[in-house]
Design brief:
The complex is a heterodimer of chains A (120) and B (151). Chain A is built from 5 helices and 5 strands. Chain A has 120 residues and is of the alpha/beta class. In chain A, strands 2-1-3-4-5 form a 5-stranded parallel β-sheet, with helices on both faces. Chain B contains 6 helices and 1 strand. By secondary structure, chain B is mainly α. Classes of the chains: A alpha/beta (120), B mainly alpha (151). At the A-B interface, helix 1, helix 4, strand 5 and helix 5 of A face helix 2, helix 3 and strand 1 of B. Strand 5 of chain A pairs antiparallel with strand 1 of chain B.
Chain lengths: 120, 151
């Protein structure tokens, strides 16, 4: 079981990601944007962070960049979960330090298998 | 129609601006109205999942189907938000785009619309619409949705 932070500005997406990961036995916290995610991530340590890209206040790519600056998140898997799928945006995510890129809508089993893969 | 009567009528640009603003407000209300039921549905699903634990066989398959299907509400909200923003901007600046028309004006309008499309998927959809005049269900989304890549 892992402790996972799910970041998305959409309330229904936060619910669905949380529901999927909880059903896989993980403990899940949520945040509504990059700013709140940073605050939560500073208070407690997560094993994986899954974040949307387009969010108000702080987008997902900036969040990944900020988390990678912190020593306790340098080697933690950071996954992008977004509707965007162009090579250019993926490259931006990769350069910021993302571990992987998942395109919405996600398949629950696939999400769980990817989380399990990045945790090993 | 007399010149005086014609002058009393609102110009076409003003009518378009007001219509665009009204459409944007209606969209915003509709989006807000549908958010709470979607969240309620998600919460109900969560409670059902908890009650049925451990999930196996058909229940697990059904849960996965619900999670996949509910994500299309979020996608719809995103598309509507883009349309709402476009309408709002159209209402703010109706005259340059609508006052005159012609090949050059058309190109300006297209360039302006492209600048306003925030996401790649919206750009793809827009280009597809321009090329074909219509979009088959899932024509754009099928290419990438649900894919994953580890770096």
């Amino acid at each position: 079981m892992a402790r996972i932070l799910a970041v998305d500005d959409s309330p229904s997406m936060r619910q669905l990601v949380k529901l999927t990961l909880s059903s896989g036995g993980h403990e899940v916290d949520v945040a509504i944007d990059g700013v709140e995610a940073l605050q939560v991530a500073e208070k407690q340590q997560f094993d994986v962070v899954i974040t949307d890209v387009n969010m108000p206040n702080m987008d997902g790519i900036s969040l990944v960049r900020e988390l990678r600056r912190r020593s306790n998140y340098r080697f933690i898997p950071l996954l992008m979960l977004t509707t965007e799928s162009t090579a250019e945006r993926k490259q931006q995510g990769k350069e910021a330090g993302a571990t992987g890129w998942l395109v919405k809508p996600f398949d629950p089993d696939r999400l769980l298998s990817i989380v399990s893969k990045v945790l090993t | 129609m007399s010149a005086a009567a014609a002058a009393a009528l609102p110009c076409r640009c003003e009518t378009l601006g007001v219509s665009a603003e009204a459409a944007a407000i209606l969209l915003a209300f509709a989006m807000r109205e549908s958010e709470a039921p979607a969240v309620e549905l998600g919460s109900a699903l969560e409670r059902l999942t908890d009650a049925l634990r451990p999930l196996a066989g058909g229940a697990a398959t059904d849960l996965a189907a619900c999670v996949r299907a509910l994500q299309f509400h979020d996608r719809l909200m995103q598309q509507l938000a883009v349309i709402r923003n476009l309408l709002t901007r159209l209402a703010d600046h109706p005259l340059p785009q609508m006052a005159a028309f012609g090949a050059q004006r058309w190109e300006e309008l297209l360039a302006s619309l492209r600048e306003r499309l925030a996401e790649d998927s919206h750009n793809d959809l827009f280009e597809l619409l321009l090329r074909t005049g219509g979009v088959a269900p899932g024509a754009v989304a099928e290419q990438a949705e649900g894919t994953s890549e580890l770096f």
